[in-house]
Design brief:
The chain is built from 7 helices and no strands. By secondary structure, the chain is mainly alpha-helical. It has one domain. Helix 1 crosses helix 4 and helix 4 runs parallel beside helix 7.
Length: 105
């Protein structure tokens, strides 16, 4: 996996550098050198987010990542906790329901 793939994920989701490192469990040098072959989560996250990125505008996908969903958590929190199953569920909910914005009460 290349540093380009990491950059694509970072751009697609609007992750900050430190967030990307936490999600991948990688150090900056590994990301810069593209030495990410031992990080299967990168390929998995790219695949999980590819369809959603094709369906909704990239700004909406980035906003969705930081918006509390039906689970009561923000998808970015699932990523940072490396709870990729919960993130996959959130992506599934996004694909099934779309990006729903509710007014705060």
């Amino acid at each position: 996996m290349s540093s380009t793939a990491a950059a694509v994920l970072m751009q697609r989701l609007g992750l900050e550098e430190d967030e990307l490192l936490t999600v991948l469990g990688a150090d900056p040098l590994s990301v810069l050198s593209g030495d990410l072959d031992d990080k299967p989560q990168l390929a998995i996250l790219l695949a999980l987010t590819e369809e959603a990125a094709g369906r909704i505008h990239e700004d909406a996908l980035r906003r969705w990542l930081r918006t509390t969903g039906p689970s009561g958590r923000r998808p970015v929190d699932d990523l940072l906790a490396q709870d990729f199953g919960a993130f996959e569920d959130a992506i599934g909910a996004l694909e099934a329901r779309g990006f729903v914005v509710r007014a705060r009460r």
